[in-house]
Amino acid sequence: MNAALTSSGRVTETYTAGLLRKMLEIPSCSYHERALADFLAEAMTDLGFRAHIDGMGNVVGVIERGAGPTLMLLGHMDTVAGDVPVRSEDGRLFGRGAVDAKGPLAAMICAAAGAVDFPGRIVVIGVVEEETPRSRGAMAIRATHDRPDALIIGEPSGWSSVVLGYKGKLDLRYTVQRPATHPSNPAPKASELAVAGWNALVELLGPDASHGMFDRPGATLCRLNGDLTKATADLSIRIPPGFDVEALLRELRDRLPEGRLDVLNSVAACRVGRADPAVRALVSGIRKLHAQPRLVVKTATSDMNTLAEVWDIPMATYGPGDSSLDHADDEHIVLSDYMRGIDVLTIAISELVHLPVRRGTREGKAPLTVRSIR
Questions:
Q1: Residue 66: what pLDDT?
Q2: Residue 117 is among the residues annotated as catalytic for this protein
């Protein structure tokens, strides 16, 4: 018998903790994920997956146990830069990526390996470059894989919360060039025009623009570099569902007296409903662990946005870990929460065998509220 598995086919707690620690010990900043992919391909093979690394560098593991539905579990391998020494302390495991998002990905691998009663196909994928503007890993998956019957994205939601959606993103670059002149010349300088471009964007979005609200856009001046003759401003706008990107671009260009405004990246917002089968399955898992589920929407962006652009299927985002620790110098995951996340995912997988989920009443259940968080 495989030493990583119990007699019932579940992955042991010792193995699950060790898997995550080993993942944290392998650096995997964006564009440098191959060592982690190699490790995960071997680990998934040992757990019974048919695993490979695709042409983009994504690691893909497949378990087929029957002719039932196909469920895809997708998380990202890459992390932002920064050294967080890997260590265990007071029930917490520290390391870069512990919550964003090696913890959720490890939980998905362990839950899928232990879902011995799922009579269908489970595809677990660790993608590259989620922390980059282009999300090329997820783009490759949607271009090369058949649409699954349901999708769960691995990001830190907290073990008792489910994410219904994310804001979209519009990345712009405004470039201005002006003739050389003396600083006292009243003619506008390139640096001044770049600042004016940022001010024009803020004015167009209006006084209610906010990064703290899901239904409002929010802007960030990501980079400003320039002098009297040449300047560049990188602008990023987080956009809610239904936002008219083309109208914003037209109005912004009308307000810029000169220079060039380029769209570097555009990703639509996404949101599913409370009755989505993937949401219901995860909620059921949380309830069976005797917790009150929270349904949240996030003002950031994830690979859920990328895949929702082309796949109209049941989907949700879930993963153990406190998202406020994303990219933090003390990034860590509470190991008991990590274990609960595996249990929730295991239950959700078993529920999704019945796709589409029956619509039922919520008699006797506490109402579910939707909250907006970063």
A1: 87
A2: no
